[in-house]
């Protein structure tokens, strides 16, 4: 039995047609580097201004200059997405954790229980902070920031941890609301 191709999202929002030249180039770069255009980008392509805002923020937070490594930022994405039970982000960012860490198990391990994963104390503190921001941001106090400072995080690092966690809290909610589906390629990536 042949499987039908799943929709990218449950909502029927067609991509702008034709895509602007800059968007076409961006999608071509994604396809070249990743072997696909992530469904999250296709989902936002019904409104190029929304797509550009999303990709601008994502690229700044996840790929821009930071005291956090790319792996650490992906770890935050997985922990936040685990709490929010966001299938798209768990699959996509779990694959990124596998790729960046070289560990084919770490992405899933973190999705189920990051506390039992073999992480550096610095990373655990970072993820506990992201968890608290996700579950009860109003309870964050100076003592929580002091824990991060004690592990060597700078003021800028703390801002970046908070920003990455906040971004994924937002995107998890959008992905869940529109039933965003991960690209099939993510499931087998970096295994």
Can you tag this structure with a few keywords?
AhpD-like; globular; single chain; 191 residues; 0% strand; mainly alpha; Single alpha-helices involved in coiled-coils or other helix-helix interfaces; 10 helices; 2 domains
Explain this structure:
The protein is mainly α and 191 residues long. It has 2 domains: 21-63, Single alpha-helices involved in coiled-coils or other helix-helix interfaces; 70-188, AhpD-like. 66% of the residues lie in helices and 0% in strands. It contains 10 helices and no strands. It has helices at residues 21-34, 39-44, 48-63, 70-84, 87-101, 106-113, 121-136, 142-150, 155-177, 184-188. Helix 4 (70-84) packs across helix 6.
Structural class: mainly alpha
Structural domains: how many = 2
Large-scale geometry: globular
CATH superfamily of the largest domain: AhpD-like
Termini gap: 26 Å
Average pLDDT reading: 95
The Cα radius of gyration reads 17 Å
Extended strand count: 0
CATH architecture of the largest domain: Up-down Bundle
Q: Characterize the main sheet.
A: none
Order of helices and strands: HHHHHHHHHH
SS element count, helices: 10
Portion in beta strands: under 5%
CATH class wording of the largest domain: Mainly Alpha
């Amino acid at each position: 039995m042949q499987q039908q191709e799943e929709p990218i999202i449950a909502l029927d929002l067609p991509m702008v047609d034709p895509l602007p030249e800059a968007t076409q180039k961006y999608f071509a770069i994604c396809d070249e580097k990743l072997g696909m255009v992530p469904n999250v980008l296709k989902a936002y392509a019904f409104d190029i201004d929304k797509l550009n805002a999303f990709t601008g923020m994502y690229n700044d937070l996840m790929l821009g200059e930071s005291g956090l490594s790319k792996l650490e930022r992906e770890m935050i994405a997985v922990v936040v997405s685990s709490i929010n039970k966001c299938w798209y982000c768990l699959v996509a960012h779990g694959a990124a954790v596998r790729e960046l860490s070289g560990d084919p198990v770490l992405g899933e391990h973190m999705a189920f229980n990051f506390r039992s994963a073999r992480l550096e104390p610095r990373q655990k503190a970072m993820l506990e902070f992201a968890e608290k921001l996700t579950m009860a941001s109003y309870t964050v106090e100076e003592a929580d920031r002091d824990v991060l400072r004690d592990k060597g995080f700078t003021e800028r690092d703390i801002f970046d941890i908070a920003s990455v966690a906040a971004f994924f809290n937002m995107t998890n909610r959008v992905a869940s609301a529109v039933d965003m589906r991960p690209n099939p390629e993510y499931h087998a990536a970096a295994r």
